[in-house]
């Protein structure tokens, strides 16, 4: 369980749409990806319910270009009535929207960020992430390849190779203080190139670029080094549950998620 002394957390749930049509939304005939049904339920419903049920989370802000898509859809209308939930209209990009939220006096740190397609998010993941992120200015959740393949050997992810293994993102982030602003500002600068890992690494200095190229860095050490580069505490949270890195990004992901949900029933 989460330490009862843990800080009260504001969760930000990303539920926006990309400029190009989403294949899952098109196939399902819905207006936005977060409304795509997974096992008969809109995918946003799963992480939203996990967040509002967690005792360390005081409120959930749903960041989207079109709040009316959710408030006007019967399956997700409960979000508008829930006392912990509020909608925020997003700006031009995720990073710029986050920077604007950080400037608000009514949103104290820490902030926990996750995504509407994190269908398998549960209390155990939140317990672990919050407990291990406390005290950091920035923390990022990742899953090591062996953790995933031990449970789901056929699952395909995008992996980053470091000295301490192959890692995939778990779409859970922590911003513990205003010291995170410079990193998010950098994110804003490269947001359109976020798939170009070399360009992003180069922004952190030549050692990070060379270290990544030669596989000299552990992921944990590399994240800590990046934190020191910005004068903050940055931390990796290596998630225990394989499901933490299985998001509903493709049709095959949805099929796997539905089989996992069925096995839990």
UniProtKB/TrEMBL annotation:
GO terms for molecular function: nucleotidyltransferase activity. InterPro entries: MobA-like_NTP_Trfase (IPR025877), Nucleotide-diphossugar_trans (IPR029044). Pfam families: NTP_transf_3. The lineage of its organism: Bacteria, Pseudomonadati, Pseudomonadota, Alphaproteobacteria, Sphingomonadales. The chain crosses the membrane at residues 198-219. This is GTP:adenosylcobinamide-phosphate guanylyltransferase. Keywords: Magnesium, Membrane, Nucleotidyltransferase, Transferase, Transmembrane, Transmembrane helix. Residues 32-146 form the MobA-like NTP transferase domain. SUPFAM superfamilies: Nucleotide-diphospho-sugar transferases.
């Amino acid at each position: 369980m989460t330490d009862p002394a843990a800080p009260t957390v504001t969760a930000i749930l990303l539920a926006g749409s990309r400029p190009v049509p989403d294949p899952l939304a098109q196939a399902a005939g819905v207006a936005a990806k977060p409304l795509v049904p997974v096992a008969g339920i809109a995918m946003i419903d799963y992480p939203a319910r996990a967040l509002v049920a967690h005792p360390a989370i005081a409120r959930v802000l749903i960041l989207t270009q079109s709040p009316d898509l959710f408030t006007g859809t019967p399956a997700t209308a409960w979000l508008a009535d829930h006392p912990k939930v509020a909608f925020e209209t997003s700006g031009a990009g995720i990073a710029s929207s986050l920077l604007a939220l950080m400037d608000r006096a009514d949103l104290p740190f820490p902030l926990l960020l996750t995504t509407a397609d994190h269908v398998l998010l549960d209390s155990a993941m939140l317990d672990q992430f919050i407990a291990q992120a406390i005290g950091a200015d920035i923390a990022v959740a990742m899953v090591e390849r062996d953790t995933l393949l031990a449970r789901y050997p056929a699952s395909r992810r995008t992996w980053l190779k470091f000295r301490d293994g192959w890692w995939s993102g778990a779409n859970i982030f922590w911003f513990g203080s205003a010291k995170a602003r410079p990193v998010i500002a950098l994110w804003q600068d490269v947001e359109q190139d976020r798939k170009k890992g070399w360009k992003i690494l180069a922004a952190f200095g030549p050692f990070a670029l060379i270290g990544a190229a030669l596989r000299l860095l552990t992921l944990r050490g590399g994240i800590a080094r990046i934190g020191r580069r910005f004068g903050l505490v940055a931390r990796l949270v290596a998630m225990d549950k394989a499901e933490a890195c299985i998001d509903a990004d493709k049709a095959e992901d949805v099929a796997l998620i539905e089989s996992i949900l069925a096995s839990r029933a």
